[in-house]
Amino acid sequence: MSKFQLYVKESCETCKLIEPLLAELFDQLDIELVSQDNPQFPPGFPVIYDESLELSYRAEIEIVPTLIEKDAQGEVNRIYGWDKEQWQKIAGFQFAAELPLFRPGCGSRTLDPGMPEKLAARFDAANLKSRRLEFDADDDIEACFDQDWSDGLPVVPPTQVRVMRMLAGTHRDPQEYIGDVPPDYGRCTIEKIALNAVLAGCRPEYLPVVIASVEAVLEDEFCMHGLLATTYFSGPMIVVNGPLSRAIGMNAKGNALGQGNRANATIGRALQLVIRNIGGGKPQQVDRSALGNPGKYTFCFAEDELGSCWESLAVEKGFAAEDSTVTLFAADGVQGIVDQKSRDPDSLCRSFAAALRVVAHPKFVMSSDVFLVVSPEHERVYREAGWSKQDLKDRLTELLMIPGSELVAGAAGITEGLPQSFAEKVMPKFREGGLSIVRAGGSAGMFSAIIAGWVASGPMGSIPVTKRIIV
Amino acid sequence: MRLLDPTSELNPEGRIPQARPDSVFGKTIGLLDIAKPRGNIFIDRIEDLLQQKGAKTLRYSKPTFTRVAPVELTQQIAAECDLVLEALAD
């Protein structure tokens, strides 16, 4: 024998519409009536008043009216809104009440703006494993500073409601184990990443990008421990590719490497806060950087792949154009290249090569990897000449073969340099695969950017890591 | 006000360092080169000084300075040495 539940609210016209039917339903069926907004609605019938909305939340009601049929094993049927034919079918009898054939329902109160995360915090917060901390302070942002959770800027206090809202941004289980974050090798779960995404100011839809970034830096070849502990400038930089970068409104155009876009700003910041709070990596402690760089607050941008004549970074790495990915790079700051006169590709290549030559030190070779961010006005020079990205890389590699006599210690009056045994050799500036090229930036300005990498780039240090983003 | 803890909630155990030995005479001392340039120059000098004081020395090196020492290496040093010196150089 089936049991039925009918979820309604008084403020829904469709729920009122079916009032004339209720007497028949109570007469024929074993039915419970659950009202979301008024214990007296519908009048004249026994009503379960779901004041806290717990019943509706647990039953995942999205629309009212919703009619649910259950047997001994559980739910067997569910109808949203009013559809006379469907209702008669699962009720098992013809309705006498004169009613229209179809009316759409209304939104359940559980889906009122701001309500889902409040209900999740109220009824599902027990699933969160993080320690609850009680504070007497009347300023929650100052309390977060006091806990040393901040990178120096104010953070968003991680309340249960905010954390539950953030976790709605992924389908992954909050307790899924992601890895141990250096330098302290603190245990990292989706929940802990979500907490730091809250601190950073992320929207829930950014969370999968943050999770993929954490997964990437925890790959052994990325060498996050050494990158954090180094005395050098570098920190993790995130390049986002694919449709998700556009869906969440990332900036790949004007000022892509700068401020002003919430996704760019907070995704990069969330990763740094994961390293700080879960990993325990803090400046002047295990983070031994002599100077650091401003990108260690946040360094994240999207490639402008739709506007590019070249295949994207992700496609180069073997992913499909429909895949969304993050590529993590151990990066220093941004060095500009100005060339407003070159209109042929070789001339522009020579400008790029001259600027790339000095990465880390004019005499250093095969130490730092590099990202070259080509602006649209520079990319146009290659587009019009029919050059692929590989053509550009090949030419730069040729131009960046440097005579050892210029690299050895003492050359040019500079003590720094390679051993004298290199004097007769010709050395490439970058290791094979160490030069990456992406296109980003505003439509005006014949400026491109060099983002140099850690001087310990390569298999003995850090190599760029690309990960697919899982929503 | 109630907030959730965004840290790993690690609770480090406090440990008291072992007492410094009165003398290195007769001790076996591991010298760990972290594989930075010129680390060998520094360790050569330290080794010379320790041997003058009657210590026995053993040399070790990490595969790369960018990563923590492999567990096998730390276990080997712990098994073979009374003391260890780790050298950072550039």
Describe the structure.
- The complex is a heterodimer of chains A (about 475) and B (about 90).
- Chain A has about 475 residues and is α+β, with helices and mostly antiparallel strands.
- Chain A has two domains: about 5-110, 3-Layer(aba) Sandwich (Glutaredoxin), CATH 3.40.30.10; about 140-470, no CATH class.
- Helices cover about 30% and strands about 20% of the residues of chain A.
- Chain A has 16 helices and 21 strands.
- In chain A, strands 13, 14, 15, 16, 19, 20 and 21 form a seven-stranded mixed sheet that branches.
- In chain A, a hairpin with a 4-residue loop joins strand 11 (about 175-180) and strand 12 (about 185-190).
- In chain A, helix 8 crosses helix 9 (about 205-215) and helix 14 (about 345-355) packs across helix 16 (about 390-400).
- The longest helix of chain A has 16 residues, at about 260-275.
- In chain A, about 45% of the residues are buried.
- The mean pLDDT of chain A is about 95.
- Chain B has two helices and four strands; from the N terminus they run E-E-H-E-H-E.
- Chain B has a domain at about 30-85.
- Chain B starts with a strand and ends with a strand.
- Chain B is an alpha/beta fold and about 90 residues long.
- A three-stranded parallel sheet of chain B has the order 3-2-4, sandwiched between helices.
- Chains A and B meet through strand 10, helix 6, strand 12, helix 8 and helix 10 of A and strand 1 of B.
- Strand 10 (about 130-135) of chain A pairs antiparallel with strand 1 of chain B.
Key terms:
heterodimer, A: 471 residues, alpha+beta, Glutaredoxin, 2 domains, seven-stranded mixed beta sheet, five-stranded mixed beta sheet, 16 helices, 29% helix, elongated, B: 90 residues, alpha/beta, three-stranded parallel beta sheet, 2 helices, 27% helix
Number of strands of chain B: 4
In total, how many domains does the architecture of chain A comprise?
2
Give a quick account of the main beta sheet of chain B: strands, pairing sense, barrel closure. 3 strands, parallel
- Please state the oligomeric state of the protein chains shown: heterodimer
Strand content of chain A: 15-25%
What is Rg of chain B? 18 Å
Which value, in Å, is the CA radius of gyration of chain A?
30 Å
Strand content of chain B: 15-25%
SSE pattern of chain B, N- to C-terminal: EEHEHE
What is the count of β-strands of chain A? Answer: 21
Silhouette of chain A? elongated
Neighbour order of strands in the largest sheet of chain B:
3-2-4
The coarse silhouette of chain B is extended
